[in-house]
Write the structure tokens for this entry.
Amino acid sequence: MFKKKSLAGPYMAFILCGTIIPLLAVLYFALVDKNGSLTFANLASIADPIHLKALGLSLLLAFICTVICLLLAFPLGLMLRKSGGNKGFVIFLLILPMWMNFLLRTIAWKILLQKNGFINMILTSLGLGELDILNTPTAVVLGLVYDFLPFMILPIYNVMIKIDNSLVEAAYDLGATPFKVVKDVILPMSMPGIISGITMTFVPAMTTFAISEILGGNRILLIGNIIELEFLHGGSRNVGSGLSMVMMVFILISMALLNKFDKNGEGTVV
Amino acid sequence: MKKVGKFIYIGLIFLFLYLPIFTLVILSFNDSKNPSSIWKGFTLRWFEEIFSRSEWMEALINTFVIGILAAGIATVVGVAACVGIMALSRRQRIWMLQLTNIPMVNAEIVTAISLMLAFAMFGISLSRGTILFAHICFCLPYVILNVLPKLRQTGTLAYDAARDLGAGPLKAFFSVVLPDIMPGVATGFLMSFTMSVDDFVITHFTRPSGINTLSTLIYSQQKVGIRTSLCALSTLIFLIVLLVLLVRMFVMNRAAADKTLKGGT
């Protein structure tokens, strides 16, 4: 059985037709104009102030979202690790909102944040005035954090719960303060979970178009919205491809920075 | 005191995760066309609306048929691929795994536009078939990554023994190897199915106008204006997910209990 390479054939066809050729197609469309002659104008169109602003805003909002998710998830992981509750039940509680359609979850926030929505009803009844953040970057960040928080919590929790408790106890026995235990023992050992949490939050947050559209009205344009407009609403596929390539470069740079940071983190352990 | 603080923090995070969902559930029973917080009486008509409108039923059928087909085809192709990959040299195998990772690390919107462009380049007009093809492509890595480690664990010994005892290659595979790797195959299938049912971005770019899955229909409906029927749909989806996860937790607990039982004796 294990001598039949040909069994991988259909899969290789899927990779070729479904991954490699399509990605080459993006590259091709990014480098030609409408008539098929070579041009760099599509890539250069990122310099258009609207596009540049969208790219900057995407990077900024995705960064803020990732930081908030990390700041919320890391202490949560620590607490859940200590309290040692039923692991299956905790994961159940985390997956349930993850499996709800993310569009519906985002729409829920739009309903909550409406002028006569639930949140304002409570705020006014408490005499705290009205919260009017719908169609602002704040609402988009809120939506991003809400949608991607479980993707940060789950990998961090999964790694933290596997840390051998005797290591933590040994650190305490050797006189470490609780802060030092977290910083020098738990944090370095949680790094793989943190890194995959950051990846699973940052990339989708940076490239989304649906969340910014629902919570930002048409006023917040992220790079994802621009690409969607170019492809599906009468723009130019070539410009859309060019912008996608530029966006990919920024994602790769972010990931490279993250990996570098990760290696530094590991370096300090040794 | 410290314990109380901890309890409050955990509680607040889970409140944050669940409050919006519960709001949708409560609003879905409100007798008001637009979801507002003013209670106008109890009704079930938004649920009736979901079930009586053909567009929702069509989207539901599309979602499930595409989900089952994509997960099924990805599972068959993926399991065969894993057997084939085992026969490759180390270097070839590393290459295959790198290629497998591309759709998983790539931004969804880039995968989506890349497929859309490829279809356009080869003159393939968008249809349910293009959606299905795209879904198979992004499901395949989940099957491979779940099945390959299991297959490596199993190794070739049992298979070779079955062959020595006179079983044909197919019989040896289906009656000896497959039962062994079944947990990985099942997880791969289920993950693929969930990914497919949940997908919005890739379907959005590879569907023709007029064909909708639940996700794309939700998207186009909210563009026109959020109606309370969307809340009713959320309630239904919430109940289904809850049910599936409860069954999953029950099965996993049973499996864990069985293991400890067997380990104990």
